[in-house]
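Input/output pair, single chain:
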Amino acid sequence: MAIKHLKTSIKPDSSDTAKIQPSDWNADHISDDPVNETPIGEIDGETRSFTLAQTPSPASSLQLFRNGVLQLQGVDYTLTGATIRYEGGKTPKMGDWHRAYYRI
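Output:
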């Protein structure tokens, strides 16, 4: 399916229109990156380490949300390979939920 995109210019004619194909998009927009992944591990108020399905690459691409709030890497948790470890006092409690978004 073609997407019609109007370019901005001072020309009023139809030469200002271009069709953009999905193959023209930047590769960053077409991805198999995990989305809305729930890290593996029991949320019981004691477990601090959770595992992702894959290792984020780069590690800084990981966005971890706990109860909808973005957690800060190095402050709220650390990441080693595919393992997330919540810092002391940040351990998810029963009833909490977390989601991870990252690049591979």
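The first strand starts at residue 3 and ends at 6. Residues 1-9, 20-30 have pLDDT under 50 and may be disordered.
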